[in-house]
Structures are given as C-alpha cells and as structure tokens.
C-alpha cells in the first residue's frame, strides 16, 4: 500500500484511497449519472456499507441514491472536482433536471430508477433515461423500463442502502453481468445521441412555454390506465400527442429522433387558438381567489372571476337543470359558487387552484381559470346525472384522465385539452368510488364535520 508522505492534505489522502479503488477516468463516460459511477465503484470493489462511509464522500452517496435526484449543487461540484480532475461538464453530466422538457407531462415515476437493462448490465446509467421522452436506448434499442429484467420488481430508490442499491434490484437480483469499471467501447454512440436529445429539448423549450397550467386530473377509473400514486402521473404518450396535434395546426415542432417516444398511448388531444383575452387583474384578485377555496365535508366554495358572467352561464339550457345544486355567495373579497362536495373530486379542486398559482401571465391564468371552471362544473353536473342513470354506458363515467393548459408558441397562444378513456366496465369504479376529504399537502383544508359547512 502506498505510504502517505508528510505534508499531504486530507484531500490528497482521500484521493489516493479512491484512485486505488477505481480509476477516475471512468467518470468521463458520456452523460453518466452519479448513481452509475458510485454504484459501479461499489460493485467493482465489493464494498460494504461501513467501507462506503469511510472511503466515499458523503455528498456523493447522498446525491447518487436520492429519489428524483436534485440538480448538481455547488458543494457537490467542488467535492467531485477536488477528487476528479478529468470530470468535465459536471452540471450537464450529473443533473437530472437538465433532461426534463415539461416535468408536468412526465409519466415516468421519479421514485424509480429507469434505464436500459443492457446498459445496466454494462454498468452504465444516465439521468437522460429517467424521463419518458426517450423510449428506447440509443445504443441497444432496448425499451427503457423501471423494472428489474430478471424478476420484474420496480427499482424503487427508497428501498435501497448504497450496498443493496448499487446495480441491484430490491429483491437482490444483480443487474450487472460482472464486475465492471465502466469502460464502454460504444460510448461515442451514447454521447452523440444524448447530445442530440439535449439539443432537441433546448429547441422546444425556446419555442414554447405554458403560460397557464398545465393541469392534469385523474378520475376513479385511472387505476386501470395510469400508475396508482398521489398525485397521479399522466399516462404515457401525452407530449407526443400534444406535439403532433400542434404540427397538425401547422406549427413546426422539432422532429423527434429515432429513440424518442412517439406513441400517443391512449391520449386524445385537441388544440385551439386561445384569444389572448386580457382580464384586468385588480389588486390582489388572484390571491383573494386562492384564499377563497374551501373544501368542506358537505359544501365546497369555488371563487369566481366575474359573478355576472358566471350567472349568465348558469342560465344556459344545458346547465339549468343542475344550477339549483349550487348557489352564488359572497366570499372573502370575491364571489364564490357553493356546490355540494360530492359533485367534485379532490383532484378537480386541486387543479382549479393550481391555475391560480403561476407567478407570470396573471391575466392569462385568470381567464383560463374562468373557462376551465365552467367546463369542469358542466362535466361534473353531467357526470352526476350519468351516475344517477348508472345502467346507461356513459363517456363521462369512463373518463380516466384529463389535461388542460395554455401554450405560448412563438407569437400565438393555444389552448391544449386532452383526455383518456377507460373501457365501459370502468364506470363501475364510480359506483364504488370513495375518497378521503383531505387534499395532499393540506392546500385545501377540510371543514370539521360538526362545524359550520
């Protein structure tokens, strides 16, 4: 074992220890995640938890095995550069969020490790594979997955200690073919592919942005369509469906690469020009509206932008028969529409409130909220009628998910709406459906059952 000479700093000593474990040049693999590098180091040297803690910087372990890994911090960057002179372009290589286009559209669960089984076998993973924009490995053509190739167990981050989680599934299957140091001979192929992917993401981000929303609502039948989780993720295929719908309107969306996801899944998307109306925001209107939401056990208060416009909507022929279910009332600074709580799901109310939380484009978000509220209540009232006639098949009772947002593309504004459907047997889920009164995170508080409604 090399002797530590007098005058060496602790950093020098730590670096020598790590160099004896694995060569730092392997960190130059193209766009490699810190999870991949640290896991390969652990497996190549058969390290145990105690040895990991004594030889590897704690920041490396914290970031490498964190669910939904955060952006590279300045402290981690300094730590890696202290040990690895050849670690170039660190923010690009190791930041998970660099690879997301619109996080709200992502259907890949962030609590799982996602990647190519063949790359795993060779000791390689990239955060570029975590999102659902890439469908197949650019090198192997293998479909990306967050399940173990051997036993189909989900690769859940939180189940792992560093030793157990290093290229190993929660049931103990080793994902590596052997003890690897990660010298991937085809690394140039991955480097070129991920460079194209990043350029594609940057080009789309430069040409479009959401000015209101987007909001995603999952209904009871979604258990047969989308992953069961809170909050529910959109079903796969949402962004390809949106981009193709925009192309159909003559908007030049950058074409996907061969390894990109192109399937629409079960999404049906419609886009229409948004009139870019300007709703004058008086004072703290949005803040007053946000404060006026109230999710009670028996009644729910929904803030209104304009009492007069909303009252006019209530008089429409297709709404009249349900209008008596709610009432217009004075709220705290704004008017509210009070409806029985059983008419709406928590996800719908959460989506309404989310439309008022965006800091930018206040006027657009208020106009969008007003339109979305009317559409949502119309569907909710119609859905209640369909529930009362449960024996008749109804699209309203087989809707699994909906999506709504206002996109700014170039100089134009577009409203993007979408939905998925379960099969007709899914409507039985409504009959059995029960949900807790609480909304995750306590954003909409529940009134005490024995207190005022």
Walkthrough of the structure:
This protein is of the alpha+beta class and 453 residues long. It folds into two domains: 176 residues, no CATH class; 235 residues, no CATH class. It is 35% helix and 12% strand. The strands form two sheets. The protein has a four-stranded antiparallel β-sheet with strand order 1-7-8-2, with helices on both faces. Strands 3-4-6-5 form a four-stranded antiparallel β-sheet.
Q: pLDDT average, as an integer?
A: 81
Total strand segments: 8
* Radius of gyration from CA coordinates: 26 Å
What's the story with the biggest beta sheet?
4 strands, antiparallel
Number of domains: 2
Give start-end ranges of low-pLDDT stretches. 447-453
The first-to-last residue Cα distance is 75 Å
Helicity range of the residues?
Answer: 25-40%
Helix and strand succession?
A: HHHHHHHHHEHEHEEHHEEHHEEH
Shape verdict: elongated
């Amino acid at each position: 074992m090399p002797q530590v000479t007098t005058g060496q700093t602790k950093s020098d000593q730590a670096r020598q220890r790590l160099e004896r474990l694995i060569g730092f040049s392997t960190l130059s693999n193209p766009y490699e995640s810190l999870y991949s590098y640290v896991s390969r180091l652990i497996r190549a040297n058969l390290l145990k938890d105690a040895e990991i803690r004594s030889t590897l910087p704690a920041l490396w372990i914290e970031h490498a095995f964190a669910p939904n890994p955060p952006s590279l911090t300045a402290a981690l960057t300094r730590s890696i550069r202290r040990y690895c002179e050849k670690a170039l372009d660190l923010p690009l290589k190791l930041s998970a969020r660099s690879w997301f286009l619109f996080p709200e559209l992502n259907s890949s669960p962030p609590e799982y490790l996602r990647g190519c089984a063949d790359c795993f076998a060779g000791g390689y993973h990239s955060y570029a594979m975590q999102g659902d924009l890439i469908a197949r490995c650019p090198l192997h053509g293998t479909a990306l997955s967050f399940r173990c190739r051997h036993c189909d167990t989900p690769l859940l981050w939180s189940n792992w200690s560093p030793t157990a989680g290093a290229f190993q599934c929660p049931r103990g299957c080793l994902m590596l073919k052997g003890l690897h140091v990660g010298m991937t001979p085809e690394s140039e192929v991955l480097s070129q592919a991920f460079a194209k992917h990043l350029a594609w993401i940057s080009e789309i981000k430069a040409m479009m942005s959401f000015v209101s929303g987007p909001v995603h609502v999952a209904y009871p039948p979604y258990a047969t369509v989308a992953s069961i989780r809170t909050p529910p993720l959109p079903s796969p295929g949402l962004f390809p469906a949106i981009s193709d719908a925009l192309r159909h309107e003559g908007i030049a969306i950058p074409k996907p690469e061969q390894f990109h996801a192109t399937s629409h899944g079960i999404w049906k998307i419609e886009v229409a020009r948004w009139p870019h109306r300007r709703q004058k925001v008086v004072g703290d209107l949005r803040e007053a509206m946000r404060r006026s939401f109230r999710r009670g056990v028996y009644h729910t208060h929904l803030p209104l932008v304009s009492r007069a416009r909303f009252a006019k909507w209530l008089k429409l022929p297709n709404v009249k028969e349900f209008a008596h279910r709610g009432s217009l009332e004075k709220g705290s600074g704004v008017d509210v529409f009070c409806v029985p709580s059983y008419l709406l799901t928590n996800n719908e109310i959460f989506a309404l409130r989310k439309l008022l939380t965006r800091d930018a484009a206040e006027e657009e978000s208020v106009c969008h909220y007003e339109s979305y509220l009317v559409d949502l209540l119309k569907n909710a009232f119609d859905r209640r009628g369909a529930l009362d006639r449960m024996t008749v098949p109804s699209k309203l009772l087989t809707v699994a998910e909906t999506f709504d947002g206002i996109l700014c593309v170039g100089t134009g504004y577009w409203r993007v709406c979408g939905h998925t459907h379960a099969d007709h047997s899914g409507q039985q889920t409504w009959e059995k459906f029960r949900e807790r009164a609480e909304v995750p995170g306590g954003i909409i508080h529940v009134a005490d059952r024995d207190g005022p409604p």
